[in-house]
Amino acid sequence: MDDETFAVLQAHRLRQEREREQWGEGWQDTGRIFTQEDGSLLHPGKVSDLFERLAAAGLPPIRLHDLRHVSATLMLAAGVDIKVVSETLGHSDTRITRDIYQAVLDDLAHDAAEMVVQLVPRTRSHLTAVPDNESPDASRALPRLQPPKHPSAKEEDSA
User: Fold this and answer.
1) Residue 50's closest CA among 40, 32, 63, 37?
2) What distance in Å separates the CA atoms of residue 8 and residue 13, rounded to the nearest whole number?
3) Which of 36, 71, 86, 128 would disulfide-bridge 94, Cβ 3.0–4.6 Å?
4) For residues 109 and 141, is the Cβ–Cβ distance under 8 A?
5) Which of the pair, 106 or 98, is modelled with greater confidence?
6) Are 77 and 108 in contact (CB under 8 A)?
7) 115 pLDDT more than 60
8) What is the 3-state secondary structure (H, E, C) of the chain?
9) The whole model's pTM is what?
10) Whole-number Cα distances in Å, 24 to 14, 36, 40, 61, 112
């Protein structure tokens, strides 16, 4: 967990402790982080209502379950190992995570390849693009390396 999220959760925990004191014997200790004011479990409908209020305030509409996908996608985009993402989501196998997020993984692989290409210094001005209607001619489209010049055996014999 990052430091900022940890600090926000600590502040929330302090508010929750004050609520516990105010409720006294009426407090329901569920051990959950997010609860009703009396400590009881949040009803899914209550959470959905809060998300609807956010949408009404002009934020993009999102469902609670969408947060799970956003979280996983952000972890993958940040380079978090697929095993860690899978465990965080509670998947029993990384194949489940790979199946669900394959498009994200494909995009990340493409982005990684582009980043690697940027590290390789080269001049592209001598390369020519081959139009789609022509068959590619490797000798024309790509630069060719010239073999080193060695004296032929005949030249060595005459020397």
Assistant:
1) 63
2) 9
3) 86
4) no
5) 98
6) yes
7) yes
8) CCHHHHHHHHHHHHHHHHHHHHHHHHCCCCCCCCECCCCCECCHHHHHHHHHHHHHCCCCCCCHHHHHHHHHHHHHHCCCCHHHHHHHHCCCCHHHHHHHCHHHHHHHHHHHHHHHHHHCCCCCCCCCCCCCCCCCCHHHHCCCCCCCCCCCHHHHHHC
9) 0.50
10) 15, 14, 13, 37, 55
Distance from the Cα of residue 3 to its chain's centroid: 19
Residue the block writes with tokens 């407090």: 27
Label residue 69 exposed, middle or buried (CB < 10 Å: 0-12, 13-18, 19+): middle
Alpha-carbon span 105 to 108, nearest angstrom: 5
**Phi, psi torsion values for 58, nearest 5 degrees:** 105, 0
pLDDT digits (tens, 9 = 90+) for 16-27: 999 999 999 999
Query: Could you tell me if 36 and 16 are in contact, meaning their C-beta atoms sit under 8 angstroms apart?
Result: no
Q: Which two tokens stand for residue 113?
A: 């390849």
Q: Are 105 and 112 in contact (CB under 8 A)?
A: no
Tokens linked to 29: 């200790």
Query: Tokens for 99?
Result: 């199946």
What's the gap between Cα 154 and its chain centre? 62
